Amino acid sequence: MTAHHDSDEPYPSLSDYHDYEPNLEFDDTELQHTAVDGDLAEKLVEAGGLDYLESPVSDGTIEENFEEELVNAPTLASGMDSLSYPFLDEDDPEDEEDFSDVSRYGIVDVVGDDTVGRKIIVVSACKLPSNKELDHTRLLRYLMYTLDKYVEQDYSLVYFHHGLTSKNKPPLSWLWQAYRAFDRKYKKNLKALYLVHPTNFIRVVWHLFRAVISAKFGRKVMYVNYLQELSQHLDLDQLCIPQAVIEHDERVALQKNRSSVSSSSGMTPSPASSPVQSRLITQQFGVSLQFIKDNHGGVVIPPIMRQCIEFLSQPDALETEGLFRRSANVTLVRDFQAKVNQGENIDFHGDVHIAAVLLKTFLRELEEPLMTFDLYDEITQFQTLARDDRPKQVKILILEKLPEDNYQILKYLVQFLSKVMDRCDLNKMTSSNLAVVFGPNLVWAQTGQLSLSNIGPINMFTDFVLTHHDSIFII
Q: Where is the composition biased (Low complexity) (predicted)?
């Protein structure tokens, strides 16, 4: 089968397909007519050594040396150049900086993985409070603190622009400093940046920064004017879209096509209103473990899970650097899922990352997580347990409270992941890295939402299970 999309290249920008430009929600004439700290645009051009180009992804922009250009660019805010979030001791999470004053606004959400296993991080401008209430320096540290947990693996970023006003809009100097603070380690594994409901403010900012943004990074940026377009790439139900954004999307869709009210919502049909699709008895993705067991000869370990793990247990696969961190081609993944659900045989053709993504996708799409909804509250309280109490409590949770079939599947998975950890010197997948990858695919709330405050405990719990698997599971 021939893949038509390179997984390392995002979808092309959607901005060229739309002529509708939503009205600005605030006066951005300062961007177009006022010099910023001694004419920001002129300084950026001088820093990049280039004139503005007609296309933000033109081959004439700075390519691989743009980081060096940024180092030489002007500093727009004093006291910020040294801004960085220190790497913390994973064994002492209580020493982490308390960002509860920022996180309570819900500006940033991590909503799990997309269809090819990439973490999705959502930033909502409508949740930004007034500039009088928010310390932007702390906001930047909070963003870096959040991203630090995921930048070592592929991830996608969704930015909902609606709701940015003159009262909560960060200054341009802060935007420039944020770009400088997010160095190569943040940009390298960012596979797609979706700018939803862009206005002239976004385009002018892009124009200002264009001289020092590489074409490679530019190709990752996609303008999305309607939520319906975003649904072609991501599951909207998974994104927890703010109601204000949904209502704004309905309005701009109505303005675009007043003659068709039914199509103006810009949202994909909700599960409640969509026709229920009949299940094939061969289906394995998107069903329960019991359904798979009942329709596959009573086997406890789901066949697709066993096939992925047996393939990935080969020495060459185990030693692949970035195993479980890299995404795979979207078309191939969906094709494999369809074949599995139809009961067809599949062949990975030596593609380690396809097998790895399918394994994560299978766990993520179960009707109920492997660790069950009933155990969610206890797992998310793991961080509060005294260190001496953790071994006993985890054993009680796994050996006594987890259903027998779930226990056997978890044991099978963890025994495989221990092989991955044994070769971490080659594949770079330590217990903590695997916990970041698998934690949200093993544990989630019944609401389907994953709050940032619970990601840490879930990952800590998963790391503990992986590290102490020999003493937890009964041989």
A: 259-275
